[in-house]
From TrEMBL, chains A, B:
Keywords: DNA-binding, Transcription, Transcription regulation. This is FCD domain-containing protein. The lineage of its organism: Bacteria, Pseudomonadati, Pseudomonadota, Alphaproteobacteria, Hyphomicrobiales. GO terms for molecular function: DNA binding; DNA-binding transcription factor activity. Pfam families: FCD, GntR. The keyword Repeat does not apply. PANTHER family: HTH-TYPE TRANSCRIPTIONAL REGULATOR LGOR-RELATED (PTHR43537:SF51), TRANSCRIPTIONAL REGULATOR, GNTR FAMILY (PTHR43537). InterPro entries: GntR_C, TF_FadR/GntR_C, Tscrpt_reg_HTH_GntR, WH-like_DNA-bd_sf, WH_DNA-bd_sf. The keyword Transmembrane does not apply. It comes from the Bacteria.
Length: 225, 225
DNA sequence: TGACAAAAGTCATCAGATGACTTGATGAAA
DNA sequence: TTTCATCAAGTCATCTGATGACTTTTGTCA
């Protein structure tokens, strides 16, 4: 029994169960002891066991089937990965997001359809340029355009990861330095669409890179100060 | 956004609280009503409320402070993102991983040091070519090389995401089609190191792309059959 | 053997109670 | 006035016992 410096009984119980799984002692598909047994083994009440199991179910480790039992679903801790990715520096996160943008534009150029191009132009027109007013809403419109570019790649994995970054980045950026980062204008955005339309992957990724460069340098000077 | 057709009371309660948060009705930092009030509002027992709160705490939405109350931490569900990324198709996952490889090589070329190049060459030598034997172990050595390339980018966010994909991809690939996907040879790997050493980002990313192309076509034909 | 009913096992939920912790108010001492 | 100790109320943490709902197994009967 490892003692965590500061953890509730429920967290300790969850950790104990988790380690049984990650260590492989409880294999995937295995059935856990029932709640009464677990509560006896872990020396906590059944209510606490249930809360611990709830957490592990939410994390994808376990699955409960009423009337049948609780079973091991997976032994990989995906929530840990996400947690660590969130703890990386803002610049790394932004750079990673930029990498996704670049490669998505490349794929979009390879796979674009007239419909996609039309949609992108419409989203860009809706976005417009920022001329004061509700900045929050403008950022949302801007994000919608960028997410559409990612969607144009046709790759759902890229979309999911991008969602993760756009959430964390906008949370951080908007609160701290939003007003000081230069927003690329309409032409820079239009260049990306044009490059995708030509079907040239190198041109598309280059357009995104040109687009991102000034934002990066602004971010770098801000983070240094 | 999938709504579960059949959800337990706890899940319903968690969803109800979650929507209060994501909709913004309960702002970040706000204090939730106490457990008794929540149980009355949601028409469930306090135990159910506690299990729901546990889940939301595990997902990063809430924070409980004993003796004080329960507070809103964040309004974005970040833990779900990676979970959804894991559910995307194998091809999308592989393509996303490839995108990370390409952009990491580009960054590595911009930031490489002699030490990094030396390490990469050593890892490649240790990897060797596959000549039968323990395939599992060879894949591990191969993965070590690729992760070193990502590490050479100096971007921790990319490393974390790559870790996520390498885990899921090797889980899937090794079990299904490992023997039928062509493994790029030593020269293809060496090309990547050389390109990084020259400091030319375009050459580095192009080398990775050339490296990945045959794997992709093999994967595509396999997935079609 | 096969189908059906009964029973046992298990999770889901509820209700009540006690302990631990935080916060704010109160009042005494410096 | 300021500082500190003490107290009381509010809240989450945990435990206990009980009931309902669902699944699996077992036993029975045709």
């Amino acid at each position: 029994m490892q003692t965590l410096s500061k953890s509730s009984l429920t967290e300790s119980a969850a950790q104990a169960i988790r380690s049984e799984i990650t260590s492989g002692r409880w294999a995937i598909g295995a059935k856990l002891p029932n709640e009464a047994s677990l509560s006896a083994t872990l020396s906590v009440s059944r209510g606490t066991v249930r809360e611990a199991v709830r957490v592990l179910v939410a994390q994808g480790f376990l699955e409960t089937r009423q009337g049948s039992g609780t079973y091991v679903l997976s032994s990989t801790d995906t929530s840990k990965t996400f947690d660590m990715a969130r703890r990386t520096s803002l610049r790394d996160q932004f750079e990673a997001r930029c990498a996704l943008d670049v490669e998505s534009a490349r794929l979009a150029a390879l796979r674009h359809t007239p419909q996609v191009i039309t949609d992108l132009r419409r989203l860009l027109a809706e976005r417009g340029n920022y001329k004061g007013g509700d900045r929050q809403e403008f950022i949302a419109r801007d994000l919608a355009f960028h997410k559409a570019v990612i969607a144009a790649s046709g790759n759902r994995a890229l979309m999911e990861i991008y969602d993760f970054f756009s959430a964390t980045i906008s949370e951080t950026i908007e609160a701290t330095i939003s007003a000081e980062v230069p927003e690329p204008d309409m032409q820079a955005h239009a260049d990306i669409i044009d490059a995708i339309e030509t079907g040239n992957p190198d041109a598309a990724s280059a357009a995104v890179r040109r687009f991102m460069a000034p934002v990066f340098s602004a971010l770098d000077t801000l983070l240094q100060s």
